[in-house]
Design brief:
This protein is α/β, with parallel strands linked by helices. The protein is 63% helix and 14% strand. It contains 7 helices and 5 strands. It starts with a strand and ends with a helix.
Length: 190
C-alpha cells in the first residue's frame, strides 16, 4: 500500500469516486466521513498519512476540521477539495498548514500526483517534528543537569567534575536517567 487515507465529503458519490481512483493506485482508504466531526474522530482512531477533505460540509466545515486535525497531529497531511477557488479559503489553508488544494471536479491525473506529494511532504514534516522534539528534550535535560551540578557544587563544596561524577554515579546506581536525578536536586532546591 502507498499510504493510509481518510476521505471526507458530504456527497457519497464524490467519496466513492475518490476511493476508486485511490484504490486503483494502491492507496489504502481507511475511512470515510460526511462531515468535519466524523473526520476528526476517524483521524483520532486511524492516524492516516493523508486526509482528503471537502471544505463545504454540514456541522463542521473542512477548514475548521483540518485546523484541529493538524494541531492535534491526528494526520500527517491534508488536501482540501472545493468547488470554488476563493482567496479567503486559500489563505486559511496556507495558514493552517494544508498540503494541497484541489478544485472539483477531481481528475485522476491531478489527484494522484497531489496525493503522492502531500504524503511525502507530510511524512518528512513529521520526521522533522520528532527530531526537533528530541533535540529540545536533550537541551532541556542538559540545562537541568547543569543547574543540578551548580546546586551540588555549592551545597557539597565539590568541583564541577566531581558534581557531575556524583550525578552519574547516582544515575547508574538508581538505574534511572541522569536528567531525572538532576531534576530531584533542582526540585529539592526550589
Amino acid at each position: 500500500m502507498n499510504g493510509r487515507i481518510v476521505i471526507v465529503d458530504d456527497e457519497p458519490i464524490t467519496r466513492m469516486d475518490i476511493r476508486g481512483m485511490l484504490e486503483a493506485e494502491n492507496y489504502n482508504v481507511v475511512g470515510e466521513a460526511a462531515d468535519g466531526i466524523e473526520a476528526i474522530e476517524l483521524c483520532k482512531t486511524h492516524h492516516p498519512d493523508l486526509v482528503i477533505m471537502d471544505i463545504s460540509m454540514p456541522l463542521l466545515d473542512g477548514l475548521k476540521a483540518s485546523k484541529k486535525i493538524l494541531a492535534e497531529k491526528y494526520a500527517k497531511a491534508i488536501i482540501l477539495l472545493t468547488a470554488y477557488s476563493d482567496k479567503e479559503n486559500i489563505e486559511k489553508a496556507k495558514k493552517y498548514g494544508i498540503s494541497g488544494y484541489l478544485i472539483k471536479p477531481i481528475m485522476e491525473k491531478s489527484l494522484t500526483p497531489m496525493v503522492e506529494v502531500a504524503i511525502a511532504t507530510g511524512t518528512k514534516a513529521r520526521e522533522y517534528e520528532v527530531s526537533l522534539e528530541k533535540l529540545t528534550k536533550k537541551l532541556s535535560d542538559r540545562k537541568l543537569i547543569e543547574k543540578a551540578k551548580g546546586i551540588i557544587m555549592i551545597e557539597q563544596n565539590l568541583s564541577e567534575d566531581q558534581a557531575y561524577q556524583l550525578l552519574r554515579e547516582l544515575s547508574m546506581n538508581k538505574r534511572c536517567p541522569i536528567a531525572e536525578i538532576a531534576e530531584m536536586f533542582v526540585a529539592a532546591d526550589d
